[in-house]
Amino acid sequence: MEFLYAIFTILATLLLMLFICFLALLVKIFTGKSIKNPKHPPVAGTVLNLLLNFNRLYEYLTEVAEKHQTFRLLAQDQSEIYTTDARNIQHILKSSFDMYTKGQYLQGIANDLFGQGIFVVDGVNWKQQRKLASFEFSTRMLRDFSCDIFRKNAVKLITTVSQSSMANDIIDIQDLLMKYSLDSIFKVGFGADLNCMEGSNSVGSTFIKAFDDTTSLIYWRYIDPTWKVQRLLNIGFEASLAKNVKYVHRFVQEVISKKRDQMEMQQNNDKEDILSRFLIESKKDPDKMNDQYLRDIILNFILAGKDTTANTLSWFFYMLCKNPQVQERIVQEIRETIEGNSIDEFVENTTDEALEKMHYLHAALSETLRLYPAVPVDGRCAEADDILPDGYKVKKGDNVYYIAYAMGRMTNIWGHDAKDFKPERWLNNGCFQPESPFKFIAFHAGPRICLGKDFAYRQMKIASIGLLRYFRFKLADEKRAVAYIPTFTLHVNGGLHLLAISRPD
Q1: Considering only 146-150, 197-201, 203-207, 412-416, which range has the smallest mean pLDDT?
Q2: 428: which strand partners?
Q3: Across the chain, how many H-helices and E-strands are there?
Q4: Spatial CB neighbours of 153, under 8 Å, sequence gap ≥ 6
Q5: Mean pLDDT across the stretch 52-59?
Q6: CA-CA-CA-CA torsion for 212, 217, 222, 228, nearest 10 degrees?
Q7: Average pLDDT over residues 326-336
């Protein structure tokens, strides 16, 4: 009995401490935030609302944004400001670029995995990586090399889907696209063959899972106020996160070491893949661009190149299944533009010249990104007190987020049919008409606009053209709800299960 009494006493004490901590958290959240001051954005709740609505996070933010274009969620030390106002977005991403940074809050959450990579850092480190990456992405050699890899892997993708189609098997198109994207990004980025699509490399599949689990667990930190305690004690989600981060870092480090050894043996500095070119550059400043620095660059590159492309294509095929008339119109455009007697010949003919003619496909991909942006929410931290263009005040240390997911559904931005999938909204006399990047924020905007935008469109077009030329897709279960996993990128929860029906030649 004494033992049970002791256990009960300990549990009661812990619960009391948790309750006291929760009350202290509430006091800190509501203290000194100018809650009723009309000069600050209206308060829509606290960051605890994000926890309560986590499984439908972006719908929740959209519902609030429909009431207030700019609003606040109160946090412990600052306000979390959210906006769908394009004027505010242009202000923080371009007009006042130097005043808004990634900030210590985001860096503290994400740098366990991404370290000093381009998506996390500011200042000199960002400028150095941006300048080098910008130069590399602009080279004709890299563009030609990447498109060649995209085409070769597209043939493998078509072959894999064909096998499932002939067996009348259900395919998880998201899983296949993740493997296609990772195979492509590793070959273009690091000159390495993972062969995930062929299933001959279990290490590659293990890496995919570890990387995806890591990004999901890191994203959880945004809404879990106990994550620092868990990390300190190495328990709960943080214990799993630490294990995955260690595996991912070790995997990438091995890639770097193998590539360096290959380059030393070959003694050839005319390299096509990005890692080789970074390794050549690192010889100029080996102290700065050490293996850890290169590792961080690589992990940021993987996040940008794998998840965004594969996720967007997954939502694209989901939209085509829900809108079969759009699917057939794209197929018509493909048949009118590209010829080929065999799969290899057809895919080889998906040249830059052919891709540029496919305005409707470009519009459909852009419409997918409007409704299902690869990065649904992003933001910056105010380094000084400021006033946004809509008149609301921002305090130093406040985080200002722009909600791309909600923006795509705002009738004041896109009209009464904002929630409809309508590629025609992007066309003017049959030609693609781009929108302001501060309105269509899928690739961000300002000095930090996505360097890989054109690469992403090319990869998505080559893959989708090949698949749609040879197969008609439909949902395996029309009644199954398709939802997302709240993480850095918009991932389909549980995969996207489709049937692929062969098209007649």
Answers
A1: 197-201
A2: 431
A3: 21, 15
A4: 180, 183, 184, 187, 197, 463
A5: 93
A6: -150
A7: 97
CB 283 within 8 A of CB 151: no
C-beta atoms surrounding 451 within 10 Å: 16
Q: HEC profile for 429-498?
A: CCEECCCCCCCCCCCCCHHHCCCCHHHHHHHHHHHHHHHHHHEEEEECCCCCCCCEECCCCCEECCCCEE
Percent of the chain with pLDDT over 90: 54
Q: Is the pLDDT of residue 27 over 80?
A: no
Query: Residue positions in the annotated binding site?
Result: 450
Paired tokens of 30: 């509501």
Higher pLDDT, 131 or 388: 388
Average pLDDT for 375-400: 94
Query: Coil, strand, or helix at residue 377?
Result: strand
Identify whether the C-beta of residue 182 lies closer than 8 Å to the C-beta of residue 248: no
Cα 154 to the center of its chain, rounded Å: 21
The residue with tokens 């989600």 is 237
Of 370, 399, 23, 36, the residue nearest 222 (C-alpha):
399
The number of CA neighbours under 13 Å toward the Cβ of 56 is 9
Transcribe 66-104 into DSSP letters: HH-SEEEEE-SSSEEEEE--HHHHHIIIIITGGGEE-HH
pLDDT of residue 9: 55
Which two three-digit tokens encode residue 187?
């070959």
CB atoms within 10 A of CB 346: 21
Binding site membership for heme: which residues?
450
Distances (CA, A) of 32 to 22, 38, 395: 18, 15, 11
Alpha carbon dihedral 273, 278, 279, 281, in 10-degree steps, equals: 130
Q: What's the whole-model pTM score?
A: 0.88
Identify which of 209, 160, 28 has the alpha carbon closest to the alpha carbon of residue 500. 160
